[in-house]
């Protein structure tokens, strides 16, 4: 009886350990770069908040519900990127998105001071899809 149980246990262990877990990595991420000039930024409150609107048709209804953007900004023509939300030289950068667009905003770090029009920048948007 012990031999039969031992053989049965060994057979179960062989079957259980022979299973192979497979990972399927599909990369549906997309990266889009925009070059903004100081003229790309607009203000409607006398320079307290500047914004630039990036048209991104890839942000559709499905992405709006299931995806997420990562946004980076570079002030040295793409040599280095800083993630947004970011405070750079006393200016706070943030973003929000809706279907078809992503808006990057710049304002004083304290939210009350008037700032200069942001300078030329490269903005990198990485769209992360999720199921």
How do the strands and helices of this protein lay out in sequence?
Elements (H helix, E strand, L loop, with lengths): L1 H16 L12 E7 L5 E2 L5 E7 L5 H6 L1 E7 L7 E2 L2 E3 L2 E8 L2 E8 L12 E8 L3
Antiparallel strand pairs: 1-9, 2-3, 3-8, 4-5, 4-9, 6-7, 7-8
Description of the structure:
- This protein is of the alpha+beta class.
- It has a single domain, classed as Immunoglobulin-like (Sandwich), CATH 2.60.40.
- The chain has two helices and nine strands, in the order H-E-E-E-H-E-E-E-E-E-E.
- It has helices spanning 2-17, 61-66, and strands at 30-36, 42-43, 49-55, 68-74, 82-83, 86-88, 91-98, 101-108, 121-128.
- The strands form two sheets. The protein has a five-stranded antiparallel beta sheet with strand order 2-3-8-7-6, with no helix packed on it.
- A hairpin with a 2-residue loop joins strand 6 and strand 7.
- The longest helix is centred in the first third of the chain and has 16 residues, at 2-17.
- The radius of gyration is 25 Å and the shape is elongated.
